[in-house]
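Hi R.,

As promised, here are both runs. First protein below:
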Amino acid sequence: MIERVPLAHLPTPIEALPRLSQLLGGALFFIKRDDLTGLGLGGNKTRKLEYLVADALAKGAKTLITTGAVQSNHCRQVAAASAKLGLGCQLILAGDEPEEAQGNLLLDKLSGAQIFYSSKTTRDQVLQEKFNQAKEEGLEPYLIPYGGSNTKGAPGYLNAMIELSGQGLQPDWIVFASSSGGTQAGMILGAHHTGYKGKILGISIEHDSASFSTQIAELVNQTALELRYDWSVTHEEILINDAYCSAGYGVLTPAEVEAVNLFASEEGILLDPVYTGRAAAGLLDLARKGFFRPREKVLFWHTGGTPALFAPPYSQGLLQG
């Protein structure tokens, strides 16, 4: 049995989206609220951290070290987990230090994380340097990869699919933001474990589908091997839509602006501009093009990220004038 440290408020609820369903016509839309996992204002990374932190503690770690963007939801949840468990935390954030800490960065600092900045190209190098330095200083560091997406973190979404199977909804489609790959890999493992027969569609946030599907398949198969599953997948079986990420990571386009505003004004649900906003923009576009069949049940899995709404340039860019 995989060790797990409970950190999230589970199970997260599933809600119908009747106004959105009526607006779009055809399919029936639902949402799973992993923005409500609780830790540090919640998000999907908390599910992965339950397993990553268990591994860290089993290895005697005293400091968690990870990396992400300045407005990283992952880093914010690592900082919160560290605070909750009395561990040190070092974050290597790719980007320039802003004049004022807002959004996720503010929450990183409130949680007591040590923050270091780097360029995106040198991020992994700086991460390794800080890890080595922490080791030399006796801080007993544990390195968590970008997005928590490795064989230790992926079981978080295997468990999430087990949770979904007991909630009474059997969706024909699960649609969500896919970026570092661990969430989708875990869902695929969970689908195998539970016998889920629907389709799991990741809306790519920054990667082309060819390379990203290969990356996810490798993570699925590596994790399955560790879990002693006599089963594997090929990259052709991984469903990735990369039609909505050409603007680049974190670049706000009219499609994200519309999606965030629509979910807020029609359903009272707040998305984030980088991940769920982009995934929801893809969902809306696919629905309008008739991609989903009439009466199919489509579950949009909300992976969190709301604090980024309060940080520039998103805070003003999302307001429709």
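And here is the second one, sequence first, then its structure tokens:
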Amino acid sequence: MIEPEIYVFDAYGTLFDVHSAVARHREAIGPQADRLSELWRAKQLEYTWTRSLMGAYRDFRALTAEALDHAAARCGGLPEGVRMPLLEAYETLDAFPEVIPTLTALKTRGRRVAILSNGTPGMLASAIQSAGLGQLIDDCLSVDEVMVYKTAPEAYRLVLERFGVRPGQISFQSSNRWDIAGAARFGFHTVWINRGGLPDEYQDLAPGRILPDLSGLLA
């Protein structure tokens, strides 16, 4: 296969570690920290899917706060003074260690690099800046433009409209298997970044490649 012209990345879980927000406040949260982080992420995603199906869009920042509140209630509450720092930390998540070297190498090869994310433009801008990715990202697309979350086709179509290309010219990378299924259905070349070594699913919508992290894109 000819190398795609444009590499499009999901943001949360793919470029940015969604569990790094809780990790920064692990000592204050206590023994429920890991459970809180898992529940927070699971509810955040659940809210995107249910609201898309209902046609009742609320932006990702609002859903992130609502998901944290639910997760905290399930874990017996948060210590005083921790909620706002957690939400602020989610705006400046840590990038995975191979992100900058991989994106730098792709740019050196002359490839265009973009993000397609459920995040709001403001959340994404903060994360990109704090992780030092500003010079490596050619464009950052948010589903806020269409007010429906991935895996809706309208979300993936944003890439075609922005770059004026066909689906087959896009390599789409995500750590979320459901996102890869949606992108494959839309016609993108897909790479599942299976960081956790999870079992496959959505067998009829298989990824083109499966990698343990982004560095494998350079092979």
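A quick note on the second one: The CA atoms of residues 35 and 190 lie 30 Å apart. Let me know what you think.

Best,
J.
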